[in-house]
User: What shape does this take?
Amino acid sequence: MTASPELGTPQLASPDLLRSVFRQHAAGVAVITAQGERPVGFTATSLTSVAAEPPLISFGVGTSSSSWPVIARADHIGVHVLGEHQQELAATFARSGADRFAPPTDWRTGPEGVPLLDGVLAWLVCRVVARVPAADHRLVIAEAVVGDPAGAGRPLVYHQGRFNGLRD
Assistant: This one.
């Protein structure tokens, strides 16, 4: 088999290649939260629907993340789908060392004690069913327990290293 010219020049797999390829992949933006001694959370673009029956989701989290020790022990987590009006919230939860739950972040304690962010497009509280090792990350699989899909607005997406809204 020969490479066609429109496919470009293949490169050997590397971390830089993976990052370059995934900059081309537009992904929805979510914030994952959990309650420990204090609430924790982080911005995730790895959120995936796994199965409808039972209703399972997954996301990846780095084991060096400040949220990982709480996520590693949490029975329940919150999943928040962000709207395009929440770019600053996404940046806050992505920023290392930020006090993510301080004002202006609006949140409340939800079912199972999970921190729930206000003003999101949709949210779920999920029961963690597995944490699968994947290099320096863990793939967390969780079953949806309760949620609300009724937020208003359009989704926030991550593309080319930036948070963006959808274009018409």
Remarks:
- The chain has a mean pLDDT of 93.
- The helical segments are 15-23, 68-73, 87-94.
